[in-house]
Structures are given as C-alpha cells and as structure tokens.
Amino acid sequence: MGDKNVSTIVRFWGHAALWVETGGYKLLIDPFLKGNPFAPVGPGDVEPDYILVTHGHGDHLGDTVEIAKRCEATVISNAEIRDWLEARGVKGHGMNIGGGYHFPFGYLKMTQAVHSSTMDDGSSGGNPGGFLLTTIQGEKLYFAGDTGLFGDMRMIGEEGLALAVIPVGDNYTMGLDDALRAVKMLQPRHVIPIHYNTFKILRQEIEGWKQKVEGETGSAVIVLLPGEAWQMGDV
Ligand code: NI
Ligand code: MN
C-alpha cells in the first residue's frame, strides 16, 4: 500500500519500457518486452499494479494484454485504447489529454504528444499522449511518450520537474537536436533519454549529447543501460 517513505525508482527496460516504483506501488510503462532486443525481463517475469500505455503502437502497447490479465493490473491509457483493451478482457482506466486523476500511487495527468496512435490491427488508438506523475511526495516526473518537439513543453516545465523521460532516437520522434531544445523548455533536474539504439534506424551517439545538454542547461542527463535504474535523490 502507499508508503510515503519509499523513494521513487525508474528502471529502464530498453526502448521505451520503464518500470517505476513509487509510493509502494509498481508501475510498468509501455511494456514492449517480447520483441524488444534489450528487455532484461519477459512478460511472465513482472508483477505490476498498474500499466501505463502512452499510445497504440506495438512498441509501446507491447505485452500489455498478457501482463494485465495475469496480474490483474489496471491499465491506464487514453479512452480509445482502454475500450480496445476492455474488449479483450483487460481492466482499464481511460483518460484524455489534459485530464488528471488521483490514483493511489499519485496524481497522474495525461499530456499531449505530437505523434500518431493507430493500433497494430488498424483500430483507432485515439490520440498519443504522455504522462505527468506527481508522486505522493510531491515530486513531478514527466514521461513524454513518443513525440516530436512542441512549444507547450514549456508549460509542462513550468510545473517544476524532478525528471523528464524523453525520446531522442529521431525518425519517429525527436532527435538529439530537438531533444536538447526540449530539455531547455522542460528544465527538469534530471533527464533520461529513451527510444534510441533499439533498432538500426534509431542509432544515436548519446554520450556527446549528454555533454552538450549538461554544458548548455542545468539538467543532469542520466544515461541508463537496459536494466539500470535511477533513484530519486541520486546525483
Ligand atoms: Ni509510436
Ligand atoms: Mn515508438
């Protein structure tokens, strides 16, 4: 149950899959594990309380159905993906962009993302999104989802972010140059780059980007290898 004394941990499982422990709850974001060449765990190895899905693409929806059914986890997504999941026997909580809800693990707001969201079977996946989590300790963590650069990131930054997790792989999302501009607008204390190097088309040189971001902004870049984690209060 909720525990105010437990610090928040964000563990990277390759591509855009993240395991978050916060307030005594376990969240799995965009659980693309089967088919993810860098996932250190499989869909049968995890026991989340909640699964957060940013949009309908297969590299984000991933193993949501299998994991949610086995663990009876609640899936939080936009309303269209919630409907698609409920038709497949999965318990969901539908939201929409700009709306927030007080979950037991914290206040979660759905944010806009400039991308698309069609499901792999051609169903409508509604609009793509991201999530802004306010933990029970009051720290704000922004998970951008797949997105291009957009100017309203500045407004998300105004909330005061402890962490921003942003895509940097280019081609389908922001690349390194736009991700640097995103960091300047978001002004997070820490930034974790994701959605790069999974496949050849997403190849990026991240160490040079880290130097550049840390030279031009006040944000610390946390480069996580798949399986590694960042804990609130670290560096
Ligand atoms: Ni996508
Ligand atoms: Mn993607």
Give the overall pLDDT as a whole number. 96
The CATH architecture comes to 4-Layer Sandwich
CATH topology: the name is Metallo-beta-lactamase, Chain A
CATH homologous superfamily - what is it?
Ribonuclease Z/Hydroxyacylglutathione hydrolase-like
General form: globular
The percent range for helix content is 10-25%
Number of strands: 14
* Biggest sheet layout: 7 strands, mixed
Taken in chain order, the helices and strands follow as EEEEHHEHEEEEEHEHEHEE
- Beta percentage is 25-35%
Classified by CATH, the class is Alpha Beta
If you had to describe this structure to a student in words, what would you say it looks like?
The protein is α/β, with parallel strands linked by helices and 235 residues long. The chain has one domain (9-228): Ribonuclease Z/Hydroxyacylglutathione hydrolase-like (Metallo-beta-lactamase, Chain A). It is 20% helix and 27% strand. It contains six helices and 14 strands. It has helices spanning 58-61, 64-71, 79-86, 153-157, 176-186, 206-216, and strands at residues 9-12, 18-22, 25-29, 50-52, 74-78, 92-95, 100-103, 106-112, 129-135, 140-143, 163-167, 190-194, 220-221, 229-231. Helix 5 runs parallel beside helix 6 (206-216). The model has no long low-confidence stretch (mean pLDDT 96). Nickel (II) ion binds next to loops. Nickel (II) ion (NI) is lined by residues 55, 57, 60, 115, 146, 172.
Please describe the topology of this protein.
Layout: E1 9-12, E2 18-22, E3 25-29, E4 50-52, H1 58-61, H2 64-71, E5 74-78, H3 79-86, E6 92-95, E7 100-103, E8 106-112, E9 129-135, E10 140-143, H4 153-157, E11 163-167, H5 176-186, E12 190-194, H6 206-216, E13 220-221, E14 229-231
Helix pairs in contact: 5-6
